[in-house]
Specification:
ten-stranded mixed β-sheet, 2 domains, single chain, 6 helices, Aminopeptidase
C-alpha cells in the first residue's frame, strides 16, 4: 500500500488479491482510490470483491471512465483537421495559449460551471496545486479577442504518451465555434511534434456527449476502465 499526500486528500495505491484486507487507512481528509482494470464481458470475482470491500469500508463510487487513445501515426489526417480548426479560430478572433497564473480564478470559475466536473476527483485539488500545474504548462486555453478565457484543457506527458483530460468550454461558445475540437486538435498536433507515440484521454462512461466527441476526433477505446472511489 502506498499513500501520497495530495494536500486536500490522500491518494492510495493498493494491490489486493482475494485474501487482501483494507486496513490502516489514513484519516483526517478525503481518501481517493482509482481502481483500474481491463474490461471483460463479465466482471471477475476479484473485481466484485474489491468493490464490496470498498463499499463496506465506507467508500463511495464517483464514476467510471474509459481510457481512449489516438494513434499518432494518423498524423497527416490530424494535421489536416488542425488546419481546419485554425481557420475557424482565426475567423472568430480566438487564439490559443498556455494559461498564466493570473488565469487561475477564471479557469476555476469555468470548471465550476461545467456540470460534469462536479463529481470528478480533481475537484479535490487546492489552489497551490493548480498553480503548480499552470507553471508547469499543463493547461492550454483558448482566448477571445478581449483576452478572456473561453475554453481550457489539462495535459500531462510521459516519455512516449501525451495525456489530456477535462476539456471545458464557456457555455455561450458551445456548439457554435468548435472550441473543444480546436483545442483537442491543437494538443494532438503538439503531441505529434513532440514525437509522442499516442495521445490518451479518460472519458467518463456516462458522458455520452464526451464519448461522441472523442470518437469524432479519432479516439478508440483501449479496453481499460477506471473506477473512482472516495472516502470522505
Amino acid at each position: 500500500m502506498f499513500f501520497f499526500d495530495e494536500n486536500d486528500y490522500y491518494r492510495l495505491l493498493y494491490y489486493m488479491d482475494e485474501s487482501g484486507q483494507l486496513n490502516n487507512l489514513l484519516t483526517g481528509k478525503a481518501l481517493a482510490i482509482r481502481n483500474i482494470y481491463k474490461r471483460q464481458e463479465e466482471r471477475n470475482l476479484l473485481s466484485e470483491y474489491i468493490d464490496e470491500k470498498l463499499k463496506n469500508t465506507g467508500f463511495k463510487k464517483l464514476y467510471s471512465s474509459i481510457e481512449m487513445y489516438v494513434p499518432l501515426e494518423l498524423s497527416e489526417k490530424l494535421k489536416k483537421q488542425k488546419n481546419v480548426y485554425d481557420r475557424m479560430l482565426k475567423k472568430g478572433n480566438f487564439y490559443i495559449s498556455y494559461l498564466q497564473e493570473e488565469d487561475l480564478d477564471n479557469m476555476l470559475k469555468l470548471r465550476k460551471k461545467t456540470e460534469e466536473f462536479h463529481i470528478y476527483n480533481f475537484t479535490y485539488k487546492n489552489k497551490d496545486e493548480y498553480l503548480k500545474e499552470i507553471r508547469n504548462k499543463q493547461y492550454i486555453g483558448i482566448y477571445n479577442e478581449f483576452d478572456q478565457l473561453c475554453a481550457c484543457i489539462y495535459i500531462s506527458q510521459s516519455t512516449h504518451i501525451r495525456t489530456g483530460d477535462g476539456i471545458c468550454v464557456e457555455e455561450r461558445y458551445k456548439l457554435k465555434y468548435g472550441l473543444g475540437a480546436a483545442l483537442m486538435s491543437y494538443v494532438l498536433d503538439d503531441a505529434i511534434n513532440g514525437y509522442h507515440q499516442k495521445y490518451v484521454s479518460w472519458c467518463e462512461e456516462q458522458n455520452y456527449n464526451s464519448m461522441k466527441f472523442h470518437k469524432s476526433m479519432g479516439f478508440v477505446a483501449t479496453g481499460k476502465v477506471a473506477d473512482e472511489w472516495v472516502l470522505e
